Amino acid sequence: MSLRVFNTLTRQKEVFVPIAAPAVGFYTCGPTVYDFAHLGNFRAYVAEDLIKRYLIYRGFQVRHVMNITDIDDKTIRKAQSEKQPLNVITDRYIHAFHQDLNTLNILPADIFPRATEHIPQMQAMVDALLQRGHAYRQDNSVYFRISSFPDYGRLSNLNPENLQSGRSVDSDEYDKENARDFVLWKGYRENEPWWDYHAGRGRPGWHLECSAMSMAYLGNHFDIHMGGVDNIFPHHENEIAQAECASGEPFVNYWLHVQHLIVDNEKMSKSLGNFFTLRDLVTKGHDPLSIRYLLLSTHYRKLLNFTFTALDQADRTRKRLQDFLFSLEAREFPAGETPGFKSEVAEWEQRFRNEMDDDFNVSGALGVLFEFIHAANRRLETLLKQDIREIRETIARVNSVLGVIREPETEALAPELEALVRERERARAAKDFQRADALRDKLEKSGIQLIDTPDGVKWKVIDSP
Ligand code: AMP
Ligand code: ZN
């Protein structure tokens, strides 16, 4: 079966055929670094991560570029209000962003280009648009003439009646009813950072940043571009116009958009003030991997309503997966292999793949996974060592896509806890079981549960009592 993805551009599921398989060029709109990213932003980033991980699992070689918007209206306003240089503000939130990606087990992009480091590429693009007659100067700024691009509005299904070419808009964000000639290069304004340019010193518009940086690293024409649904108009519509008019080539083959995370039926956003940051939730004691599980377990094109009840439920469900794996580690199975078991497990994995091949139907895929675990659990008494290895390897592959199970061996314990584990092992070796049990209790109070396995002692993180 082939992978099918829902393309916003054509409004249907299409078979995914990369331009130069197995290579896949993959661009996702990154954060505007004027504050901590909130959970709504992370819904988009986690959904993109799931899709990227599945492409990798499917054998594609993904080249992932995620931009960092470190200059725009919002970052400038924040720097002004804090009376700090722009880069002090943006460096702070870039650092926090990378920490948060790591907390949520999101694979880093191959390249995180910063807008302020790509001004020459942006200016070259404005030059090309001026030369080809798609842009004009007005005051000290440069605008894109939307009437010069017949495809304008195709991505967002814009009503042609709303196209107001000849009238310009300076701000980066505006609604569909106000589709106008948008700004490419913003002429200098007092107290704003600026760069020299022949049309007048100034700074890039936000939409220009993404076109220039994606093409700088993925070429004029690449495979997948993603972002949240709020990016469809005007951001991505404008990106297409700039890119295709500057290069004369098609820009992106597949546009994928992530639906919103909502709270009480409203989009979670900074401007509405109804947001949580990842840090808020982690500080309250929520397990980051359970937050990840919650964010990815609803299909990316469906609204996700955030509630704490749903988060607790996600936590319990995720732990079932984790506990199943630990239960396999904690016991010895007789040597050997059950005839036919390997192909049975392969069939389960194929079913997981079939679901994910259908536009990343994660709910179906998780359903298959839990059925599999359930079935395996029922037969656990009869299974043999090689069967268990098959199960573990399959779940590890599935988890390379989901990223929600903690692998017990991969984490290093804090040195003081490590010392307690070793001390307990010495006590056990000396048959001082009272002491060993006291140390086990002590570790449990620190949130570490020990599992004595045939391969030695392992451990997992538990909620401290
Ligand atoms: P921003 O920093 O506002 O440019 O947003 C970064 C990414 O997060 C974009 O892809 C947005 O579409 C996405 N985003 C923002 N708010 C939400 C939300 N409530 N739910 C899902 N994605 C969101
Ligand atoms: Zn973008």
Describe the structure.
By secondary structure, this protein is of the alpha/beta class. The protein folds into three domains: 4-258, Rossmann fold; 270-406, no CATH class; 410-461, no CATH class. Helices cover 44% and strands 17% of the residues. The protein has 14 helices and 16 strands. The chain has helices spanning 39-57, 73-82, 86-103, 119-131, 206-218, 232-247, 278-283, 288-296, 308-329, 341-357, 362-378, 385-402, 415-429, 433-445; strands at residues 4-7, 12-15, 23-28, 61-66, 135-138, 141-144, 164-169, 180-187, 202-204, 222-228, 252-258, 261-263, 266-267, 304-305, 448-453, 456-461. Strands 5, 6, 7, 8 and 9 form a five-stranded mixed β-sheet that branches. The protein has a four-stranded parallel β-sheet with strand order 4-3-10-11, sandwiched between helices. α8 (288-296) crosses α9 and α10 runs parallel beside α12 (385-402). It is elongated. Residues 29, 31-32, 40-41, 43-44, 227-228, 230-231, 258, 260-261, 267-269 line the site of adenosine monophosphate. Adenosine monophosphate (AMP) is lined by residues 29, 31-32, 40-41, 43-44, 227-228, 230-231, 258, 260-261, 267-269.
